[in-house]
Amino acid sequence: MIVFRNSYFLMPIVSLCLCLPAYAAEENSAIPTGNGAYQDLVQLLDEFRTFRDPAGNQPRQIIRDTAGQAIDPVDDFSASAIAQQRAQMHTFQSRLEDMHVAAWDRHQQADYLAVRSRLDQYDFILRHTRPWARDPGFYVDRALRVTFTELPVAGEAHAEFLAKIRAVPVLLNEAQKHLDDVAADYADLALHNLEHSDGVGHGYPYRTTPPAGVLGWYDDLLQRAAVQPELLPEIQAARAAVQTFTAWIKTRRPTWTAPAGVGEEAFDWYLKYVKMMPWTSSQVVVLGQRELDRLWANYALERHRNRALSELAPAESAEEYQQRIETSDQRIRAFLKDQAIITIPEQIGELDTNAPWIVRPGGRNFWEEIQFRNPSPDHLHAVIPGHRFDGILAGEIEHPIRGKIYSAARVEGWATYLEEAMLQAGLFDDQPRVRELIQIFGIFRAARVPADVWLQTRQMDVGEVVEFWLPRVPYLDRNVARVDAEIYLRRPPGYGIGYTIGALQMQRLLADRKRQLGDEFNLKEFHDQLMTMGRLPLSLIRWDMTGLDDEVEKFWDRKAMP
User: Which residues are CB-neighbours of 248 under 8 A, at least 6 positions away?
Assistant: First the structure.
C-alpha cells in the first residue's frame, strides 16, 4: 500500500480501489520483465534529476576574462557535450527498461510510466527541439534576465551580478557557434524581442513606457547604474555583445527559412509517450475545435441572457482593483468551503494575484481586460484552488516519485477545469456578467489547441496563428496573441494544448469516478484525493484512481522515437 504523505489529507490508495473493475494491465506482454526493483526506479529518478540540475553534472564551460577572473559558467552546447548527454540518457533508459515492472502493483506501474515520460521528454529535447541550435531566443532570454537586477548591489549580490553580466558576451559568442539549424519563426521572434517591447511584460519590472526590447532593457540598466558607476563598463560590454548578436542574426536571417516545430510524426510520438495523452494530434485538433465552438455558443447564449444588464466596467485605480481581488478571494474561499468543493487547509494564507495593476499608454491587454473587470476567472485558475494552491499542496507530498514529477497538462488542466466547473457548481449564479468572462477564458484556451498543433506540425507559422486567433477571441490584442504563440511554440511541445485537453481529461476523470461510485460519490473527497496523488499525467491519475486501463494500455508498447 502506498500512502501519499500530505499533511493536509491522509488517504491510503487502497481506499480508492473499492468498486473498481478488475485490473488487467499486468497481463500486457509489453510491460518490462527485467531485474530492477521499485527502489531502483526511485534511485534512477534521483540520479536523473541531479543530471538535469544546472548545478549538477550538466556539461559546463568555465570561462575566464582577459584578467584571468572566472566568469559565471555557461552551459556547454558543443556537439561533444550534447553527445555526452545523449549517451547518459541512453544509460538511464537502458536501466529503466531492465526493471521487473510486471511484478509491481498498479500504483508503482503508474510511477514507472511517469518517470519514463520525464526521461523521454528530455531525450526528445536533445534530439528534436534542440533550442541551442534552432532558437536564438534561447540565448536572448538568458541575456535579458540580468537587466532586471535592482541596483545598487552589495556583497554576494554584487558578486553574483558581476558573474552574470560578464557571462553575457561569452554566452552570445558561444551562441554564434551553436546556432546552425535556425528556424525562421525563432529568428523573427528573437529579433522582435531584441528591439521591441513585447507589449505584455510577464515577469518584467513595471515601466510606464516599456523599454524597447532587450537592448532597451540594457539602456534602462545603464541609467540605473548611475548609482553604482563601477558597474558601467561591464554593463556596456554586455550591451555591446547584445548589439553584435542582433546584427549577426539580421545578417543571417535570409538563409534561415526552415519551419519551426517538430513535425507531425515526432509530435504524435511526443503526445503519446511524453504527454501520455490518448489522442493523436489530428484528434486533438478536432477536440479543440469542438470546444471552441461549444464555448462560443455558450458565450452567445450568455450574452443574450444578460442583454438587459449593464456591462462590467474595468477598475479605475490600483486601489479599486485591489479591492476587487480581495472580494473575489473571499467569495471563492467561502464558496469552496460552504459548498464542500475542496479542503482548504488552515495553513493556506494569502496567495497574491496573477496580474498586477498596470496603466498602459496603449490601453489594456487581453488579460487586463478580463482581470480589471473581475479577477475571479484568473483567481480560480492561477491562485485558489488553482496554481498557487495546487503548488503548495504538491510541495507537501513526500512520496519519492510523485512529489518530484510535474505534468504541465495536469497542472494547466486542473486550473482550466476549475473555471467552468465552478461556474457549473454555482459560484457565479449571482454574477451573470462574470459568467461571460469565464466563457471568454475558455474560448482563448480552446483556440490555443489547434494553433499549438499547427505550429508544432508545421502547418502554420506564428503570424498565421495570430491572424487565426484575433477574430476568434473576444478582447484579444495582437501583443498577447504574438506572445502566446511564442510561448507555446518555444516551450516543450504541446504545452498550449494542455489547458483545454487537460480540462477534458479532468472532466472524463470526474465522470468516470461518479459513474463508479454513484450515490457514494463525494465531490470534495474527489478533489482532495486528486491533490494527494501528485502531478502525474492525467491518464495515469485516472488509471490510478479508477483502475480503468483503456488509456494506459496504449502506452506500454513504446515505439522508437522518430
Answer: 176
